[in-house]
Every structure is written in C-alpha cells, then in structure tokens.
Amino acid sequence: MPLMQNQERLSLNWLLERQYDRSETIISSMTVAFFISQLIARRGPGSLYSFLLRRGWIPEGNQGLPKLKLPIDISGFQLMRLEIILTVEGFLNRAAVVAAVYDCLDEIISITQGSFNLPMDLLKEYLSMARIHGYYSAPRPPDAVELAVDAQRYGLGEHGVGVSGVWPLLQAIDGTETELLQSLQKAIASILRLVADPKVAIIIATASNNAIFQSRNSIFHETIPQPIDSRWHVEAISHARYLSDDLMSLTGRVEEWIGTRFDEDALTPPNPNPLLPLKLRPPRQASLSDGTRRLDMLDSNRDSFWSKRKDSSAEWQLYQTIGRRRDALLLPLPAMPMENTCRCSFLIQLLSQRPARANVNQAALAQLWLFSFENYIEDLAELGAPAGLAYELTFNKYGLRICFLGISQNIAAYARRFSRRLINHHNKLMIEQDIDTTVIERTVVAANKQRSMSNMRKKKLEKEIRQSSPQEVSREGKAFLASCVGALCLVQGDILKTEAESLAVDLQEVFDSVRSKNEDEVTQPAIPNFTEILYTPFWKPRSLCSIPGVPLISDACGRVPR
To answer: Which of 133, 158, 292, 508 matches a 20 to 30 Å C-alpha distance to 49?
Structure first.
C-alpha cells in the first residue's frame, strides 16, 4: 500500500489482543516487543540490517536500522510496528525487502525447531541486557517529574506508582525464576507465531515524488500511476492518498532473486553474545584493605580519594576510587541511578613523548591510524553495545588515553579484546590498498579544527592527508606504540582489587609486546596530574537509542524501581 510522503519508509503492522490483569507478573506486549526487537532489529553478520544495507536498500548508520515500536499498548488492543527507512532503490524493491523480513523470521524460527519457543539461554541474555539498559544505565530524573508521569500513565494504588519492585516497562525477572521465564517464553512464542504469518500483517510503504517517478525502473512492480490517476484512493479520516499493491503475488520471483544474487551474506539466526552474562550479580563496593593506601596525587591540601596499589610496577601504576564521595575527582560518566549498580570504568593513559614532539605530518598520520582503528573495530563495538559496553580513544600531550565503560562481569573481556586488536592494527594496514574515504574525511575535519594553524597550512595538511598511504599510517601507528613506556590505570565503580590488578597485568603484557626493545630509542615521558587526564570522555557508541529494543524499556522517565 504505497502512500505519498517525503521519505521512503516501509512499515509492517500487527494487531495484538493481549489482556492485562494489572498484576506485577504480567508479561506485557512491551516486554515481548523488546525480545522480538533483539531478533529482528539486531546488527552484525547475518542480520536483516546488514542484508539490506549491503544491497543499498536502507541508508547507512542508525537511520537505516529497523525499529520495532508499540504506538498503542492498552489491555485488549496493541499495535506493534516494524519500521524501516528505505533508500529510493529500497522502495523500488520493496517486495524484496518484505520477503527479506520474512526470511529473517524463518531463520529465527529455525532455532526453535518449529515450536516458536526461544532457547532459555538466549532469553537470559536478553534479560541481562534489559536489566543493564533499563535499570543500571537508565538516567534518573527528579522524583517529582517521574512520579507525575508515572501517576498519569500507571495510576496510583496497589499496582501503580510507589509500589516497591514494580517495573512497568519490563518486569525485573531473575534468570533463576523458572516459572516466570516459561511464561515469558510462551508469550514471545504466541506473538512470534502471529508475526511470522505474512497474511496477517498490514504493510504500508511511503514514498516521495522522486521515488514514485522512478518506479518505472522496478523489476517487481508495475509503474506507479501519477497522483491524479483514478487508481489512487483517499483515506476517509486522514485524507491520505494511497494505492493498493499486492506484494504476495511476487513472492516466488523475489525469493528466487534474493537467493541467487547474494549468497555470501545469507540471513542467519542470532548467535549468543559472549559479552552478555546470563545472570547479573549484585553490585559490590571496593573498599580499602591491607593492599591499599591513600595517596594525595593532585594537591597537598586536597585528598584525591584515589588509592594506589602497593604492588603497582614503576611503569604501570594502578589507582582505584574508594566510595562515592561528592568531592572526589572521578572520570565523568553518563547519568545513572543513585543506587549502587554493577557499572564500572577502566582508564588507561599510555605514556609517550611522541605526541608532544610530533610534527604536523606525524600527528595527521597518527590520527588516521586512530580513526581507521575505530572503523576496524565497529564489529566489536556493536557486540559490546547491547552489554552496556562503550569505549573512547583520544590522543593528548601525554600519549593515548583509552577509556572503557561497562559492568564488572564483562569490562575485562572487552578491554582485552580491544587492546589486542589495537596493537595488531598496524599489521592490517600494511596490507591494505587504500584508506577508507570516511576515515580520510573525518581526519580532514579534525585537522581543520586546529586553531593554531593558518589556512594555508591547513590546505597543505589536507593534501598530505588525502595522499597518505596505508603503509605510512601503519608505520606511524607502530612507532607510537613502540614509544609507550608506561601507563596510569584508573578504575572506579563495581570492580574489586584483584580484578583490577589482574586486568592491568594482562594489558601491560599486551602493550609491552610492541614496545621498542632498544632503550636508547625510548625517552622517559612526563607524568600527568590526574586533573589533566580526567576530562569528559566522548563515549562510542554515542547513543543508546541505536541499540535494538532499548527505547522500549528505557525512556526519559527512568522506569527504575524504588
């Protein structure tokens, strides 16, 4: 059913009739939609997103990510909608896009062996994800604002606002509660069975005049008539113009075309995420012990509230925050609930004289190396985002600062993977033919922001950046890593002494493996004050809204139990 609008868009709509009994254990359609969103709207190899993106049917970035919504969610009637922004090419092949959606659903059903019951381990993973993003990482507004919104939405009384443990957007189901897990599995299966039937979906495609004009090039559909044609209808209430289109009659041709044209990126069912724990442990608090002592690292008149481990080596030093005192100097983290959570951060300041002494050309090559690495680890970033993991990389005059944000159960594994790929990135660049154009453009933008350079120098630098080869970038990246002779490690949050020390030792071994063996080539770097390296991180990924299902369970009003 194509509609005339200013953007190409495809939406699949399903009408649900779930009854809510207002009990605390009810599995709402919002809860089920969160789980189905993990299956349909995920990223990565074999996903619907990568399948459509490779063919140019959806725009790049978060805009093209399929989104599952519930515009209407009341007892007895719910509307669930899968929305996909299309390119003009995607609109011309909209029947193939619809077929790909149902192919994706068929792959999901294949792991249930036709029962529509998702594996319990997969459910527990998604429950952990919901707990991380809907509770531990959910921003908290002032109580007056939250209470006002909750009172209007959920009412007052036994099952409304102020009841301890009530979590309206997603029940706080523990991974060990077998009965509730089985109820959740059954609820998901009933809706998945409905969604997988193409006969019950209401499919709406919207398009701009440009896409309608180009419809004559479609290999599946007849040319869309001009808006003045009598085949266009007018909807009685909204007065929107629409045209009926029979997509089901094209299924055979579409399936044959999809299956034979691209075989290397076939749709596959979701795989377990190794960074998502099956069960979250309660938050813990690091405390002073015999192995720690307080140090005044910043100012003789002010306690820094950083404790130094007595067994830290001379070159790698580990510090840890103790408590949550308001006047402590901490790494700025995103807004979070005031309650104790299992969230933590790990900062590594690699120490090197090279950034401070580099000329403009060396600095540009180093930035190309850093930005190309961020492109290289997009898969790791996408894997870590559902588990609440994020990173930040920035050069400063003391070297390279690496920040990790996550929970205590997965931050160590993420940091180790990240660091191993960082030290091997120059080897990958050495065999590349060209540098990605997005990396070059990003580096040019960063260079043009330098206020200390004249316009003439910026133009010359831009030319050098565009002419840089991957091999030159590789050599600069390798030279920087070889020049690193130590690091300051700072941890805060729910991470214990032994865990922090183990991670610091492992990362030291990783970075020491690429350090220069010739001591004459290495100069001792300056040691920064903590105030100089505790600037606000620019976390990647930037927005939690890009993670499938998160907008369904974490909104501006917090949704956090008391």
So the answer is: 133
Q: What angle separates helix 29-40 from helix 94-110, to the nearest 10 degrees?
A: 100
Q: Which amino acid is at 140?
A: R
Cα–Cα distance between 344 and 332 in angstroms, integer?
12
Alpha helix segments (H runs only) across 468-554 = 470-483, 497-512, 530-533, 550-553
Mean pLDDT per 10-residue run, the chain (562 residues)?
65 89 70 91 88 90 88 86 91 86 90 89 89 75 61 60 53 68 90 90 83 65 69 79 68 50 70 90 61 32 40 69 62 77 91 88 91 93 92 93 94 96 93 90 86 81 89 93 91 88 92 78 77 90 79 60 42
| 202-207 vs 2-4, strand pairing mode | parallel
**Token digits for 81?**
């909608």
**Which residues of 266-323 form beta strands (DSSP E)?**
292-295, 306-309, 316-321
Cβ atoms within 10 Å of 518's Cβ, excluding its own: 7
H or E element: which one contains 491?
A: strand 486-493
Q: Are 114 and 40 in contact (CB under 8 A)?
A: no
Contact 101, 225 (CB under 8 A): no
User: Is 105:114 a contact under the CB 8 Å cutoff?
Assistant: no
Decide if 366 contacts 355 (C-beta within 8 A).
Answer: yes
- How far apart, in whole angstroms, are the C-alpha atoms of residue 358 and residue 75? 64
- Distance CA(47)–CA(3), nearest Å, equals 27
Local structure of residue 353 (DSSP, 8 states): S
d(CA 95, CA 52) in angstroms, rounded, equals 12
Three-state SS annotation for 171-221 = CCCCCCCHHHHHHHHHHHHHHHHHHCCCCCCEEEEEECHHHHHHHHHCCCC
Output the 3-class SS for 153-175.
Answer: HHCECCCCECCCCCCCCCCCCCC
Q: In angstroms, what CA-CA distances link 507 with 259, 266, 328, 417, 514?
A: 45, 37, 26, 10, 12
Q: Are 486 and 351 in contact (CB under 8 A)?
A: yes
| pLDDT single digits (tens) 345-367 | 999 999 998 988 888 888 889 99
Residue whose entry in the numeric block shows the structure tokens 């938050």 = 283
- Three-state SS letters, 78-117: EEEEEEEECCHHHHHCHHHHHHHHHHHHHHHHHCCCCCCC
Q: Note the helical H segments in 385-469.
A: 411-423, 425-430, 437-448, 455-467
Residue 458, number of CB atoms within 10 A of its CB? 16
Q: How far apart are CA 389 and CA 217, in angstroms?
A: 44
Please report, in angstroms and rounded to a whole number, the separation of the first and last CA atoms in the chain.
46
Instruction: Give the pLDDT score at 206.
Output: 85
pLDDT in tens, 376-432: 999 999 999 999 999 999 999 999 999 999 999 999 999 999 999 999 999 999 999
For residue 509, with 0-12 CB atoms within 10 Å meaning exposed, 13-18 middle and 19 or more buried, which class applies? exposed
What's the pTM value of the predicted model, to 2 decimals? 0.84
